[in-house]
Amino acid sequence: MKRPAGGLWMKFAREELFNPLGIPRFEWRRGPQNRVAGQGNLRLSLVAMTRIGQMCLDQGREGDRQIVSQRWIERSLAPVAQIGVLVQIGFEGVFSPSEFCDHPVFMRV
User: Fold this and answer.
1) How many domains does the chain contain in total?
2) Could you tell me which of 14, 22, 64, 75 has the fewest CB atoms within 10 Å of its CB?
3) Residue 89: is its pLDDT beyond 90?
4) Are 40 and 92 in the same domain?
5) What is the spatial distance between Cα 25 and Cα 91, in angstroms, rounded to a whole number?
C-alpha cells in the first residue's frame, strides 16, 4: 500500500479494503514508536483471508466495486526473479512447483 495522507494506515485499510470486503476485525502489528508495520505482520481470520483471496480471483473486485486494480493483482502475483531452476520470487511471495498439483504453489513470506 502507498502511504495515505497523514499516515493513517488503519483508517485507510479499514475504509478502502476491509470494510468493503466485510472484514470487521484485523490487526496489524506495531513496531517502534507504535507505528504500523504495513509491509506485513497482518493478522486475519481464515474467513477474512478467503475474502481477500476471492477478491484476487475476481481481478480486484468485490461485487460491482473495484477494491484494488486488476493490474495491481497481476503485478503482485507475478514472479519477478528466479532462484535456481524451479523457484521464483514475486512481490508478494515465493512460487515453487508442487508434487500435489499441476500448477505452482504460492507461499506468502
Assistant:
1) 2
2) 64
3) no
4) no
5) 25
What are 103's three cell numbers?
Answer: 500448477
The pLDDT tens digits for 22-78 are 999 988 777 777 776 666 677 889 899 899 889 988 999 999 999 999 998 888 777
User: For the residues of 31-94, what is the DSSP string, one character each?
Assistant: -GGG-B-TTS-EE--HHHHHHHHHHHHTTTEETTEESS-HHHHHHHHSEEEEETTTEEEETTEE
pTM score, whole prediction: 0.68
90, amino acid identity: G
Distance CA 20, CA 76 (A): 20
The domain of 35 spans 5-74
Answer yes or no: do 82 and 103 share one domain: yes
